[in-house]
Amino acid sequence: MSGLLGSEKALDRRLFLCGLGSFFLPIARSSQATNAPGYLACCRTKSGEYGAAVISSDLEILHIEPLDARGHDAALSPNGDLAVVFARRPGRFAVVIDVVTRNRRFAFAPPEGRHFYGHGFFSTDGKLLFATENDYENERGELGIYDATNGFSRVGAFDTGGIGPHEALILSDGKTIAIANGGIVTHPDFPRQKLNLATMSPSLSLVDIETGGLIENAALPPHFHQLSIRHMAEAGDGSIWFGGQYEGAVTDEVGLVGVYRRGDGIELIEAPAPLYRRMNQYIGSVSADRSGEFIATTSPRGGQVIVWDAARKRPARVFDRPDISGVAASRGSFLFSDGQGGLLRGGSITESGLQWDNHMLSIAAGR
Fold it and tell me: Is 185:194 a contact under the CB 8 Å cutoff?
């Protein structure tokens, strides 16, 4: 599988930053921090309790909303006031937080026979919430639809066009949904087991938000059927960048990042072999910066970040940081979080005292 990867000699050493111990400098908490919410991320406290933290734009912890179990990601309402935090697979809770008043507004669950996959999004008018779900008895993916104007009651569902839908997002046209179907069969009776690795079939689906009709379903080539498509971001040119988690042999050299455009299929992005190798077959999060010109992909298992130039489809910046995963658009391009409690932005580290989970949501972008 080495055909996807560029020559190690092609690696431009200027892409690499100095070791983080010298490049990222710890900074003290600001005594003049704003109280405006800037980000939200799931976390675990020093006492071992789970929560969702509202973080200011100056990286102060403004509020921690307790969660019954481990959270995963969150969806932000278009006006930036509400965030819906989803349970990690195979969890069944979703908590609605008013990030301005920092109060819990609602909690809800999917119907029997379903569980959340940890991701979702609002419609552009804010009236509906969509959540990726597992119809586990029938081994099919669903996009649950919840009425945000009526206590988040479930009002319907769309078929995702595949198994194991993970992240889903509304594209910039406001009417097309992109869904990353991971292709892996799971069941809550076997909470973290993957039951079909030999036959898994990941895909990226486009669905009409009005009708639920399948517009297009793009699959990987058969010999890459174990590259589970998990996380996505839309670039400024409308292309969809995704990160995969490879379930095949650890010795296989596989392109873990791909780009998709409607009608053109999936292209796995070439990169110098050492970059993908250090990611340990696992992309944890994908995010576009506010301009849409750069895409960040993180690997907590490999302790590495690659920031891609979307137009040139090549790495623009690479650095290492243990257990780094969360990433969101921020001033100065991106804010990153790691499992050791660090918040990394613009060459500095703020130590939070919390253990951050896989994802981070930019609240400021929705306001």
Answer: yes
CA distance 350 to 45: 16
Distance of alpha carbon 197 from its chain centroid, rounded?
A: 22
The H-or-E segment that residue 272 falls in is none
- Residues with Cβ within 8 Å of 87's Cβ and at least 6 positions away in sequence, in order, are 67, 69, 70, 71, 72, 93, 94, 115, 116, 118
Peptide bond into 90 cis (omega under 30): yes
DSSP string, 57-120: TT--EEEEEE-SS-EEEEEE-TTSSEEEEEEPTT---EEEEETTTTEEEEEE-PPTTEEEEEEE
pTM, whole model, 2 decimals?
0.90
- Radius of gyration (Cα) for the chain, nearest Å? 19
Say if residues 310 and 241 touch (Cβ distance below 8 Å). yes
For 227-270, give the DSSP string: EEEEEEEE-TTS-EEEEEEE-S-TT-----EEEEETTTEEEEPP
- pLDDT tens-digit readout, 302-332: 999 999 999 999 999 999 999 999 999 997 7
* Token output for 87: 């349970």
Asked if 141 and 134 count as a contact pair (C-beta separation under 8 A), the reply is yes
Tell me the C-alpha distance between 327 and 319, whole Å. Answer: 14
Q: What pLDDT is recorded for position 365?
A: 58
Counting Cα atoms < 13 Å in the Cβ hemisphere of 200 gives: 25
Please say whether the beta carbons of 206 and 224 come within 8 A. no
Rounded Cα–Cα distance for residues 366 and 76 (Å): 7
Contact 222, 176 (CB under 8 A): no
- Token digits of residue 124: 């552009």
Question: d(Cα 98, Cα 299) in Å, to the nearest integer?
Answer: 30
